[in-house]
Design brief:
single chain, 759 residues, 5-stranded antiparallel sheet, 16 helices
Length: 759
C-alpha cells in the first residue's frame, strides 16, 4: 500500500515532467515557426526577383516575322507598276497605288479586292511621277505631264453596325480634285516629293527640263466666313542640286528638301523661308564606289536613312557645331545586309525601319538602339515595295514577280539594347552622344531616351553624400555612447536616437525640400563656415575646459557628463555661423556666392542639390548605423576591456586595438545596411532633389535616383509598354544593388568575425 508521502512525490514528478514536455513542445513550435518564417522571407525575396525578371525578359526578346499568306492582285492592265503600298491601323485592309493612277483596296489576309478607284486626270495628260508623304499622314501625290500634281489621301472610316466593326476605305482630295499647278511652264514633273498637313502643303518637283521647283500652298481662312478658305501659292526655283538627281524628299515639317543622285551627292535645302529657300549643305553620302539605292526619312523627319548598293544603311541628321550652325552628319551605319538595298520602310511612331534588298532578304532595324533585330529571307525574288502597319505589327511587301506577301511582325521593344541602356547614345538634335533619361514627350514621333546610367549614377551619388555625412556622426557617436558616456546619459541618448528611425521619410523629405533647401541657399557661406567653426569651437571649448576652467568647477560635473555641456556650445556655434553668413558673402563673394560660383567658377547651382539630400538622407540613415554599431561596441566582452586596461593600455589604445577590432563585424554590417537603405531611399530624394537625371558629381547639383524614378513614372507608364518594362528593369537593378551590398556585408562580416573571434 502506498503511503501519502509517496503519492505526493509521484504527483510532483508528474507535474515536473508535464512542464518539461510543455517547454520542449514550445521549443519545437518556436523552432518550426522561426524556420517557416525564415524560409518564407527567403521565398518572398526570390519570388520578387523572379517576378521582376518575368516582366523584364520580354525587353530582350528578338524580333520575329511570320508569313501569313501571299497572293497576286490582278492588275488593270499589263505592266501597270505598283508605286506604293499602305495599310490601315488594324492591318485588315491594304491599298495599292499603280503607275496609271489606280487605287486598289483589298483585304490583306486574302487579297480580295474591295474597291478600285482611279485618280481623276485632265484630258490628254499622263502620270509622270509619284510621291508619298509621311506614313502617318496617309497622303500621296501624282505628278502629271502638264506640270501639275494631284494630292490624294486614303481614308478608312470605321463604323460598328450591329456591334461589328466595319472598315470602309475611300480616297479624299484635301486640296480638291483639280490638279495643282507646280510648274507654270507646263513641263512634265519627272520627280516629285510631297508633305501635307491641315495648314500647309509643300511640293518639291524636278521637271523634264531639269529645273528643281519648290511650291508651297498655305490655307488662308476668309475673314467673312470662317469655313471658307483659299490657297496661297508660293513657287521658287532652286539652284545647287546634284546632276542626274534621282531622289527627292521633303521632311514632315516642310522645313528641308533633300535631293540626291545615285552617286551619293546629297544637297539639302533650307525651306524655313518659303519665299526664299536656299541651299544649306552639299556633301557625299555613300562610300566611294557605292551608289544610293534607297532613301527615306525616319518618323519625325529629322533622320535621313540612305541605303546603298553595297548593302549598307546609314543614318544622317543635323548636328550643331561649335559656331551654332547645323551640319548634316552621318551618325551610325548598319551592315547586316550585303546585297543592294531596294527599298526602306520607316515605322510610323518609332525610330525603327525595315529594309529589303535585291536578294529578297528583309531586315528589321532600330536606329536609336543601333540594333539589327532580324534579317530573314522573304520569298525568292527581289522585294520592290514595303508597307509597314501603323502599329508596326504587320507588313505588306511586293516582289519583282508581282506577288504580294502579308506578314505578321512581333517586335514589341526594338529600342532596347545594352548600348541604349548603359552606353552613350547620339540622339537626334543632340550635339554629341550622351547618357539621357527622358521617357516621354508630347510628340508622337518622340525618340525615347531610356539610359539607366544617369539614374543609377544618381542613386550612388545620393548614397555617397548621405554616407559622407552619416558615417562620421553615427560611428563616432556610437563609440562615445558605448564606451565613454555615463550609463544614465546612455539610457537617454540611445533611445532618443533610435526613435528618430520611426520618423516618416516623407516628413524628412518635405522639410528638406521646403525648409532646409531655401535656408541653405540663403546662408550658403555660413553653411560651409559651419564645417570649420563647429570643430574648431568644440576643440577650443575642450581646451578651455581642461586648462582654463578651475578644477573646483570641473569637479562639480559628474564623470562622463561633460558632453552635455557641448549642447549649448553646438547650438551657439551653429547660430553664429549662419549669423555671419551675409557678412562672409559680402566680403568674399561680392554679395552673392551663387552668382560667384556660376560666373567665376563655372559651377551651376540648383536649390535642391546633393548637399540638401546628403543632410536629409544622412539624418534618416544615422539611427540605423548608430544603433547597430553601438550595440556591437557595447557588446564587446568586458573582460577584454578590463584586461587591456590592466596591462597598461590607455582607454584610447584599448578602443583602437581591442574594442574596434572586436566590434568590427557589427560596425561593418551597420555601415552596409545603412548604405543599402540610402541606395533604396525614395521619398527624401523625390522631394529634396531637383529630380533631374543628370550625371554631375557637383555637390550643388541634384540627381534622380532609381527608386525616385520608379515612384514618379510608374503611375503614368502604360502596362507592358517599353517604358513600363524598363522601369521594372530599374527596379531589378536596384534590387541587385541592395542584394550585392548586403551579400558583401555578410561575407566581410563573417570574415572579420572569424579573424577577431580569438580576442
Amino acid at each position: 500500500m502506498a503511503t501519502p508521502g509517496n503519492n505526493s512525490t509521484a504527483a510532483s514528478l508528474t507535474e515536473t515532467e508535464l512542464r518539461q514536455r510543455t517547454r520542449i513542445l514550445q521549443d519545437i513550435m518556436a523552432r518550426y515557426a522561426i524556420t517557416v518564417g525564415g524560409i518564407g522571407v527567403i521565398l518572398a525575396v526570390v519570388l520578387i526577383f523572379f517576378y521582376l525578371l518575368f516582366v523584364v525578359v520580354p525587353l530582350f526578346k528578338p524580333a520575329q516575322i511570320e508569313e501569313v499568306t501571299s497572293y497576286r492582285l490582278t492588275p488593270p492592265s499589263i505592266g501597270d507598276q505598283t508605286v506604293h503600298l499602305a495599310m490601315e491601323e488594324q492591318a485588315e485592309i491594304g491599298v495599292r497605288f499603280t503607275r496609271s493612277g489606280l487605287a486598289q483596296f483589298f483585304f490583306t489576309h486574302s487579297g480580295a479586292v474591295i474597291k478600285e478607284q482611279s485618280i481623276p486626270l485632265p484630258p490628254e495628260t499622263t502620270i509622270t511621277s509619284f510621291a508619298s508623304g509621311a506614313p502617318d499622314s496617309a497622303t500621296v501625290a501624282f505628278g502629271l505631264s502638264n506640270g501639275t500634281a494631284v494630292l490624294v489621301r486614303h481614308i478608312y472610316q470605321v463604323t460598328f453596325p450591329n456591334d461589328k466593326r466595319v472598315i470602309t476605305p475611300r480616297l479624299d482630295y484635301p486640296l480638291g480634285e483639280a490638279p495643282l499647278i507646280i510648274d507654270t511652264s507646263s513641263r512634265a514633273l519627272r520627280l516629285l516629293a510631297v508633305q501635307s498637313d491641315e495648314e500647309q502643303t509643300s511640293f518639291g518637283a524636278l521637271t523634264e527640263d531639269n529645273r528643281l521647283l519648290f511650291t508651297h500652298f498655305a490655307a488662308e481662312e476668309s475673314f467673312l466666313d470662317d469655313e471658307e478658305s483659299t490657297l496661297e501659292r508660293t513657287s521658287t526655283e532652286l539652284e545647287g542640286f546634284p546632276e542626274n538627281t534621282r531622289y527627292l524628299l521633303l521632311d514632315p515639317d516642310q522645313q528641308h528638301l533633300y535631293t540626291a543622285n545615285k552617286d551619293g551627292a546629297l544637297s539639302i535645302f533650307n525651306l524655313s523661308d518659303k519665299q526664299q529657300p536656299h541651299l544649306d549643305q552639299r556633301l557625299p553620302s555613300v562610300a566611294e564606289g557605292a551608289e544610293i539605292t534607297a532613301m527615306k526619312l525616319l518618323a519625325g523627319g529629322i533622320s535621313l536613312m540612305i541605303g546603298s548598293s553595297d548593302g549598307r544603311i546609314s543614318q544622317w541628321f543635323p548636328v550643331r557645331d561649335e559656331s551654332g550652325k547645323f551640319i548634316f552628319t552621318q551618325i551610325r551605319e548598319f551592315k547586316a545586309q550585303t546585297a543592294p538595298i531596294t527599298t526602306l520602310a520607316p515605322e510610323f511612331n518609332r525610330k525603327g525601319f525595315l529594309a529589303a534588298d535585291s536578294s529578297g532578304k528583309l531586315g528589321i532595324y532600330h536606329a536609336t538602339a543601333h540594333r539589327t533585330l532580324l534579317v530573314e529571307q522573304v520569298g525568292k525574288n527581289r522585294l520592290n515595295q514595303l508597307a509597314i502597319g501603323p502599329r508596326a505589327n504587320a507588313l505588306l511587301s511586293e516582289d519583282s514577280a508581282g506577288n504580294i506577301h502579308f506578314l505578321r511582325i512581333e517586335n514589341e521593344h526594338p529600342e532596347i539594347s545594352f548600348s541604349s541602356l548603359w552606353g552613350k547614345v547620339w540622339y537626334e538634335s543632340y550635339s554629341e552622344p550622351d547618357y539621357i533619361w527622358q521617357s516621354s514627350s508630347a510628340s508622337d514621333s518622340f525618340e525615347p531616351k531610356l539610359s539607366l546610367t544617369p539614374i543609377t549614377f544618381g542613386t550612388l551619388k545620393a548614397a555617397f553624400y548621405a554616407m559622407l555625412i552619416a558615417l562620421p556622426l553615427a560611428i563616432l557617436g556610437a563609440i562615445f555612447t558605448a564606451q565613454f558616456m555615463a550609463p544614465r546619459m546612455r539610457r537617454i541618448v540611445k533611445p532618443t536616437i533610435e526613435i528618430m528611425e520611426a520618423l516618416p521619410t516623407v516628413i524628412i523629405g518635405f522639410l528638406a525640400g521646403l525648409w532646409l533647401a531655401p535656408v541653405l541657399e540663403t546662408h550658403l557661406p555660413g553653411t560651409f563656415a559651419l564645417l570649420v567653426i563647429l570643430p574648431a569651437g568644440i576643440l577650443l571649448f575642450a581646451y578651455a575646459w581642461m586648462h582654463l576652467i578651475p578644477a573646483s568647477i570641473r569637479h562639480r560635473i559628474p564623470d562622463s557628463w561633460e558632453a552635455a555641456l557641448l549642447l549649448p556650445i553646438v547650438l551657439f556655434l551653429s547660430w553664429f555661423s549662419f549669423a555671419i553668413s551675409p557678412t562672409l558673402e559680402n566680403l568674399l563673394f561680392d554679395g552673392n556666392m551663387i552668382q560667384w560660383l556660376t560666373h567665376e567658377m563655372g559651377i551651376a547651382f540648383d536649390q535642391r542639390n546633393s548637399l540638401v539630400v546628403g543632410i536629409a538622407m544622412g539624418f534618416a540613415v544615422i539611427p540605423t548605423i548608430f544603433s547597430m554599431a553601438e550595440d556591437a561596441l557595447f557588446g564587446v566582452p568586458k573582460h577584454l576591456i578590463r584586461g587591456s586596461l590592466a596591462l597598461g593600455a590607455t582607454p584610447w589604445q584599448t578602443l583602437m586595438r581591442v574594442i574596434l577590432l572586436t566590434a568590427s563585424p557589427g560596425i561593418f554590417a551597420a555601415v552596409m545596411i545603412g548604405l543599402g537603405r540610402a541606395v533604396g531611399e525614395t521619398m527624401i530624394v523625390l522631394m529634396a532633389t531637383g529630380n533631374t537625371p543628370i550625371m554631375d558629381l557637383s555637390i550643388f547639383q541634384g540627381m534622380r535616383t532609381l527608386s525616385a524614378n520608379i515612384a514618379v513614372e510608374m503611375p503614368e507608364a502604360e502596362v507592358a509598354s517599353t517604358h513600363y518594362r524598363v522601369l521594372f528593369l530599374a527596379a531589378l537593378v536596384l534590387f541587385t544593388l541592395t542584394f550585392i551590398f548586403n551579400t558583401l556585408a555578410e561575407v566581410v562580416r563573417q570574415r572579420l568575425r572569424k579573424k577577431y573571434s580569438s580576442l
